[in-house]
From TrEMBL:
It holds the Pfam family Aldolase_II. This is Methylthioribulose-1-phosphate dehydratase. Pathway: Amino-acid biosynthesis; L-methionine biosynthesis via salvage pathway; L-methionine from S-methyl-5-thio-alpha-D-ribose 1-phosphate: step 2/6. It is an enzyme of class 4 (lyase). Binds 1 zinc ion per subunit. Keywords: Amino-acid biosynthesis, Lyase, Metal-binding, Methionine biosynthesis, Zinc. Belongs to the aldolase class II family. MtnB subfamily. The keyword Zinc applies. GO terms for molecular function: methylthioribulose 1-phosphate dehydratase activity. SMART domains: Aldolase_II (SM01007). The gene is mtnB. InterPro entries: Aldolase_class_II_sugar_metab, Aldolase_II/adducin_N, Aldolase_II/adducin_N_sf, MethylthioRu-1-P_deHdtase_MtnB. The lineage of its organism: Bacteria, Pseudomonadati, Pseudomonadota, Alphaproteobacteria, Hyphomicrobiales. Gene3D superfamilies: Class II aldolase/adducin N-terminal domain.
Amino acid sequence: MALDLAQQSEPDEAQVTAAVEAVISAGRMAAARHWVPATSGNFSARIDAHRIAITRSGVDKGALEAADILIQPLDAPLLPRSSAEAPLHIALYRRRPELGAIFHVHGPASTVLSRGVGTGTLRLQGWELQKALAGITSHEEAVDVPVFANDQDTARLADLVEARLAAPPHDARLAPGYLLAGHGLYAWGASPREAARHLEALETLFEFELSYRRFTP
Ligand SMILES: [Zn+2]
């Protein structure tokens, strides 16, 4: 019987370890790209239907250790040392069981471009790199990125995000992420690998947009 219990606990432990390692790896990638200056940004990965691994507040995302990652139940109050933005992660995981990871950065391109376009929608079209986003097969497809006003009330913001995701546009695909004006980018995926690809694609597409707009009257 003891052996059975040990065998049952192993997969659970492996899932926790995999989620923690995915968060550490995503933080390193974003820090190397200078997208999480001065301990900003936060990263999370789903462990199972009820728990996520998520970065705690105030740590350098390029030097994360396992002790910096909280194991947060989705139906419990925020753990001590949680990030102020943890509720945005939790709300998305609760409402969208298909999400495996959510990464948030304060990258220069997403922060500046979002402030420039104001709230509403940033439409991407004509970029080959759009095809790095799940389900997009052509540069000709329109991809809409919702842009919200920045808000320190993250519960209110989470409701706005869900309302936009629940009402996709008729003439475009919704990006796997959104912008907070003057703040940064949230991107997600079905797995940590896909979330990282989406994060890198979107932040780079915003760099393209910024450069392109400088050359376009
Ligand atoms: Zn932030």
